């Protein structure tokens, strides 16, 4: 039997997606379950491939099948394509297996010509409607199928309207439209070199070919390459008879959701217009009516429609977004699809569907897009308030949430004003580590410079604090303590509001609504945790962040950056003293001052975490970061330390580096200054002993050595840690266990992960640095080209936001395999920012990681992503 | 039959190295061929392993074998250990399979005790000699076998000499020595808690155990780990009867080479002392005599010795370094080994041995240490002159060679004075790209700051120019144009001399000898080229370097860095104009000015290379490197360009980066500013056409895209190059072929080398950057810790000098395999500095590379290394 290339809607089903495309399968499915769908047929994806296999010719055999199906359709509808009596009009649409931008748009009203337009006029008793439809068809066909630029037609319309003094298209008379049709046909002839095709079958075949051709237009090819969609899938073509909602008062058109897409409330939600076409709803000239009023206007139709929506939801087991048209008192369903919804609605719908037995808990979990949870985890502006607010500028959405406060231009002012409970925003050209205190106290942060990975952005995300970064439109005048933008000046102490999810800055104090993580959110996350097979920890450097992370479900700390503890005001002098020491003795003296602070830090963390594990990373960044950044601060320091200003300047220059990212940092510091490592090891163990003595449960601290590129580094530092720790433990009556491991963040560490595993108890992937070194991209500098790379599709995603699985992922995979090959019980985790990005979480799960760690506010996202990964591919227990 | 653990010298041979160790096998071999070797026996490496397998006890069975062999030795020698008549004395030495520092030293005179010392005195008729030998033995045994610190014994000697007013040990009388022996025994008892062992067999067994123990001392373990020597090889122990050259005028001792180790001349070369021990020759108190005088003093012995040396050379087929002792008119050979020699001698000896049919050409090639060739490729100081010269300071040996000249403190002064033929040296705190012109003209370069990979060092090596870098002792006062060191001031215009191979700086104009690459050097390099299966190219950016590389045997250019062409004085204004352009049009205008220069550059190179291939790398470094570095230069530029100083400053700040190494450079520039790439492609193709029109043979230019991390980058830039090039070629009547490929210098490029190969004609490994990113080491900053890493053995070698095969090498291997997997004909090369380092060259050969490329002066080294790699493991043709 020869292959079948064309399927009537009644011959397909939703399972035939690969043959009929998404749209075709859906129309067939609705037909199958008895819904009133305007009938038609689908030309298969195989026909498209056949077209390409035959030098872009639609073979006779397929043409024959198309004609047979067309005849069948004409018979069913009692209409005839091109007829002057009862003309059949059809739409032509592309329909690939995966929805794909760049493919051909819709052509409506196909079948109209100089003859059938008269039939349509007669049949609908509406000559204006008929000619308006005809001119629309000419325009759409020329543009979409024949690539005649749209503006050539628009120019004619504009000219006519201008000359007649019309305001809108609806003012055009029948006579106007008739002459426009003639002019449009002239344009077509001029551009194409042939008369506008009067033969409807020719119109149809040209349109079908146009759909096939659009499969291989450049945009579609690029899209497929980026999304790994095979080139040989092909596209289907759908031919569907037209229905009209603008045939009078017993006609209409509308859109409805089976539930409220904002809240998830289980109540039909939607709107419609009587005597209108879909375009009219979109154009917004007339105000649509609420769907509930249809019950009064057309009770029969309403009842039928409600029944259909309920059936559709049950059939597809999800909230549906349904398009319908009423033609002369008869209801048609044009489309149904899973409805887009807010995070809140998504959760409510999913839990409700589970409760009503329609879907399983696993299905409910798979229904929620993890990143969408962001909406719920941060405060947002009240919708009404934001509509009224005055938008001042737009920057980068660096850290989500909404925040309002009086603006201050340095950390000290923020701290001072925050003391009295005043709400403040920190506004800076860009932030530096010295601003930390102010960032902690402020409600939100606004910077003029810096990208998504600038200091302000990274630190704010870590704190879960709202931040708009790189807002270049705003001139920040730190000296005069004011900002200027577009002629508006906002001075210190005046209110601004920031939306860190949008990157927008508003004047004044815009009203907000809070975070609500109870009810169905809790229910769903409970299911998530039941399913999940990978732990989720948090990156937290202090008890405040740790507490908020536990609230979000963190099961431990995956990264405690000890250097963040060094910036506080009362410590920085001792830190600087340590750095500027010229001898081991001097350095040890300074470190002795820091020891009590660090011990207290760890003690506090052990108390908050109360038995949950903590991974503590030893000092990582280049020492010069801690030094004063301007002469004034340097002078003050010189005075405090009793050394000369010149000496301090010289040391700062000595410590400066060409490429600090690749410089004297991480474990390299512990190799050259082992006494720093000794102090930190002491502080960890003593803090643990103190906590234990007070009855706090303390999980064995995980001591993490950063920036290891060579097994010997870890071997040496491990010895220092063990010597220090064991001596304290032996002299204590409290027993403390601990483990020693390393960040895997340097490419070479991945390559030698077998050798390193011999001296490591655990690995934690530092994918930020691994991405930097693996790509040769400095996060601080990549802004100059990375956006362009993503926009042009050179890279599919920003690799600092979404882990690069196919490149850097190979290194991670290699490290996991080499490490576990030597030491099967090696604990594996990730603490880069990717640990909270859903696709990266899934990748980590696939590599067999024990946990991911992310900033507190991303913990629920990571939990959900980890559960979804498990459902897709459960691990053997 | 039970295992044999002890071998008499007459029972072994040089093939039994793994059992007898290097030294034992050698003594056995000499015995076997009938040389007069003081006899003895070797305890095998298996006995050492047996010792460790049995809780560090020497089993009875082995003790028995030792005793049997000792008895046999006593019988042969007619002496007895510990006898008061005719005592046998022996030496005990460790002897591992591979020579290994950290292992036990020699113990001499074992067998002496309170009784046998008298026998020795009587036998030799020299009581002083006997007691001196005894006190030496106590000291050596205590130190080496029992770990009693040497200084405790030295202190006694010093005290006695001081109290008696003696100047040297030889002033000590017999009575002094007798009382010293008593005191030494007292020290032993105090330290060890037992009497000094009088039983010679106990002395022997303790010494043997000490050798076994030394196999596992920490230094030896670290050494084995670093050199991949298995821990289970074990060490052998050699027990050999003592002979004495200090028994009177018919005794003596000496060392001789079978040929001259400085020149290779085929004539016995050496010296000896009558009535002396080996120590005396080393101590230098008496002046040894030339070996030739022995012919008159002891004609019989001389003749016997000459015969033996000739036999040994024939037997070992190489120049020998032979130690001998004459005891009472009887000649003994104590050791023979291949003699150390200069590069010149090495070549002359090797060629001579081939000519005389003793070794093959391949063996001759394997005899030369490639790095040693460095001695020949650069001028050196006359030996007599350097002995008399005044050493001023020591820095890093940044680029080899010897140079003298009048010093100047900036490039302009160097250029100005060089015009008159004056020899100059450029002295700077550190160099920057703006100094290039001065570096070209100067004889050598001296900097106070910067390491082996600083700008000065890298550029100087590229030019083959002598450079001493990082000479921190010298205070360079650029303002006053003088240097100060140790109270000496050298002013502008005064002479200094630099030894770039040693890193030394001398006062005045020290005489030099030139480079001589004819004669046997040419002969040997001819053989090298016959054998070699991998090409050797050079890194060269201009005709001068290219010419010198061809002289050294380069077969093409493996890396032409086009940015080096941009620094010249007449071009830099246009370069800066290009960088500061705000629009594409402005940039294209500036580029149009550069085009003729670049075209000329390439045209000149094509002419010099005359048909040899050239790999041209497109612009690589961050643009801000080209901008003026101080306000003055910026102001001048602003004036020239007619824009404001503030604008220029702003643009310079905009272009500055936190981590320029990982910033906006390489192909990222071509992506954001494609017009730069267009200009360079034009210049290459037009230069080639012009050369061809003049009849020059032009190999298809290889256009190389730097810093690719993603296949799409190369795809886009390749399209730009092809469009530009093909347009020119189509409009020309001369046909030019070209290829497009990429540097592989980013880890991710290695990981995606299969995808990249689809759009690349060749790969060239940029191992400098690959090492930087793979290790996370910035070359410019790593000086702060890298030296310590190498000194402490954390890393075996500086990975910027010797390619890290086990780490970064995995990336290279992966890239070769992935690339060739997709495209078997993919051309592979290396252009990092490792391309001239012998072990790295061998690694490249093993990965199947088509060529290595290195700086001109390293080309012969790379050729030799490549030939040796081929001999070790020939490729299938």
| Cα radius of gyration of chain A in angstroms | 33 Å
From the N-terminal CA to the C-terminal CA of chain A, the straight-line distance is: 49 Å
Oligomer: homodimer
Instruction: Assign a percent range to the helix content of chain A.
Output: 40-55%
- Point out poorly predicted stretches of chain A: none
Mean pLDDT of chain A: 91
Count of helix runs of chain A: 35
Number of strands of chain A: 33
Structural class of chain A comes to: alpha/beta
Shape of chain A: elongated
Main pleated sheet of chain A: 8 strands, mixed
Strand content of chain A: 15-25%
- Strand order in the sheet with the most strands of chain A: 14-24-23-16-17-18-19-15
Q: What pair of chains forms the biggest interface?
A: A-B, 47 and 47 residues
Report on the structure:
Two copies of one chain form a homodimer. The first copy, chain A, has about 900 residues and is α/β, with parallel strands linked by helices. Chain A contains 35 helices and 33 strands. Chain A has an eight-stranded mixed sheet with strand order 14-24-23-16-17-18-19-15. In chain A, strands 26-27-28-29-30-31-32-33 form an eight-stranded parallel β-barrel, surrounded by six helices. Chain A has a five-stranded antiparallel sheet with strand order 1-2-7-5-6. In chain A, strand 20 (about 475) and strand 21 (about 480-485) form a beta hairpin. The model of chain A has no long low-confidence stretch (mean pLDDT about 90). Chains A and B meet through helix 26, helix 28, helix 29, helix 31 and helix 33 of A and helix 26, helix 28, helix 29, helix 31 and helix 32 of B.
């Amino acid at each position: 039997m020869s292959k079948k290339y064309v399927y009537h809607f009644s011959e397909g089903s939703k399972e035939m997606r690969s043959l009929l495309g998404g749209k075709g399968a859906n129309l067939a499915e609705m037909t199958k379950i008895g819904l009133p769908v305007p009938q038609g047929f689908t030309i298969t994806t195989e026909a498209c491939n056949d077209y390409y296999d035959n030098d872009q010719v639609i073979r006779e055999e397929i043409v024959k099948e198309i004609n047979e199906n067309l005849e069948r359709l004409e018979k069913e509808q009692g209409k005839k394509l091109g007829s002057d009596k009862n003309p059949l009009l059809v739409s032509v649409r592309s329909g690939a297996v995966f929805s794909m931008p760049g493919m051909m748009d819709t052509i409506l009203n196909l079948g109209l010509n100089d003859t059938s337009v008269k039939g349509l006029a007669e049949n609908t008793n509406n000559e204006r409607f008929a000619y308006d439809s005809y001119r629309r068809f000419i325009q759409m066909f020329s543009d979409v199928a024949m690539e005649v630029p749209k503006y050539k037609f628009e120019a004619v319309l504009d000219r006519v309207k201008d000359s007649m003094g019309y305001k809108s298209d609806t003012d055009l008379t029948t006579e106007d439209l008739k002459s426009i049709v003639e002019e449009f046909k002239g344009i077509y002839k001029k551009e194409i070199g042939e008369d506008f095709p009067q033969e409807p079958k020719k119109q149809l075949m040209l349109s079908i070919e146009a759909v096939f051709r659009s499969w291989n237009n450049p945009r579609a090819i690029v899209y497929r390459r980026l999304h790994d969609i095979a080139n040989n899938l092909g596209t289907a073509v759908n031919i569907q008879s037209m229905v009209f909602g603008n045939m009078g008062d017993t006609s209409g058109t509308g859109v409805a959701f089976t539930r409220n897409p904002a809240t998830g409330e289980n109540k039909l939600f939607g709107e419609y217009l009587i005597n209108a076409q879909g375009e009219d709803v979109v154009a917004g000239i007339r105000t649509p009516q609420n769907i509930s009023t249809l019950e009064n206007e057309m009770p029969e139709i309403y009842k039928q429609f409600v029944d259909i929506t309920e059936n559709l939801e049950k059939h597809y087991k999800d909230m549906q977004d349904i398009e319908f048209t009423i033609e002369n008192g008869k209801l048609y369903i044009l489309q149904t699809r899973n409805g887009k919804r807010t995070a809140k609605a998504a959760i409510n719908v999913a839990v409700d569907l589970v409760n009503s037995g329609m879907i399983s808990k696993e299905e409910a979990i798979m229904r929620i897009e993890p990143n969408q949870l962001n909406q719920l985890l941060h405060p947002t502006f009240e919708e009404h308030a934001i509509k009224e607010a005055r938008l001042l500028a737009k920057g980068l959405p660096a850290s989500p949430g909404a925040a309002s406060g009086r603006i201050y231009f340095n950390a000290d002012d923020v701290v001072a004003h925050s003391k009295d409970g005043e709400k403040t925003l920190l506004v800076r050209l860009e932030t530096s580590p010295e601003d930390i205190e102010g960032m902690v106290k402020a409600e939100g942060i606004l910077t003029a410079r810096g990208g998504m990975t600038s200091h302000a952005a990274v630190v704010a995300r870590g704190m879960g604090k709202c931040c708009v970064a790189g807002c270049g439109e705003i001139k920040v005048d730190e000296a005069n303590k004011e900002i200027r933008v577009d002629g508006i000046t906002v001075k210190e102490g005046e209110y601004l509001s920031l939306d860190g999810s949008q990157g927008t800055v508003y004047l004044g104090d815009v009203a907000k609504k809070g975070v609500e993580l109870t009810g169905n959110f809790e229910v769903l996350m409970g299911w998530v945790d039941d399913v999940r097979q990978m732990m989720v920890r948090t990156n937290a450097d202090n008890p405040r962040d740790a507490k908020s992370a536990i609230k979000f479900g963190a099961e431990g700390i995956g990264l405690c950056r000890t250097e963040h503890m060094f910036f506080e005001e009362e410590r920085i002098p001792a830190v600087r003293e340590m750095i500027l020491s010229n001898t081991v003795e001097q350095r040890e003296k300074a470190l002795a001052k820091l020891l009590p602070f660090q011990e207290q830090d760890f003690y506090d963390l052990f108390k908050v975490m109360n038995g949950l594990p903590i991974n503590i990373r030893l000092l990582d960044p280049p020492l010069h970061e801690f030094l004063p950044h301007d002469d004034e601060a340097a002078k003050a320091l010189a005075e405090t330390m009793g050394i000369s200003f010149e000496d301090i300047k010289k040391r700062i220059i000595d410590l400066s580096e060409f490429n600090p990212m690749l410089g004297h940092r991480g474990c390299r510091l512990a190799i050259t200054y082992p006494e720093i490592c000794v102090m930190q090891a002491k502080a960890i163990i003593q803090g643990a002993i103190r906590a234990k003595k007070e009855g706090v449960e303390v999980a064995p601290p995980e001591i993490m050595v950063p920036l290891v590129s060579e097994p010997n580094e870890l071997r040496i530092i491990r010895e220092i840690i063990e010597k220090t720790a064991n001596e304290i433990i032996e002299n204590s009556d409290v027993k403390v266990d601990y483990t020693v491991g390393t960040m895997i963040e340097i490419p070479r560490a991945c390559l030698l992960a077998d050798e390193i595993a011999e001296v490591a108890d655990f690995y934690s992937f530092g994918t930020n640095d691994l991405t930097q070194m693996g790509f040769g991209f400095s996060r601080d500098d990549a802004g100059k080209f990375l956006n362009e790379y993503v926009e042009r599709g050179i890279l599919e995603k920003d690799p600092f936001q979404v882990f690069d699985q196919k490149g850097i992922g190979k290194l991670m995979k290699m490290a996991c395999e080499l490490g576990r090959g030597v030491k099967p019980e090696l604990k594996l985790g990730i603490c880069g920012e990717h640990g909270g990005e859903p696709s990266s979480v899934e990748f980590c799960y696939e590599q067999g990681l024990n946990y991911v760690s992310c900033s507190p506010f991303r913990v629920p996202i990571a939990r959900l992503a980890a559960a979804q990964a498990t459902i897709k591919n459960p691990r053997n227990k």
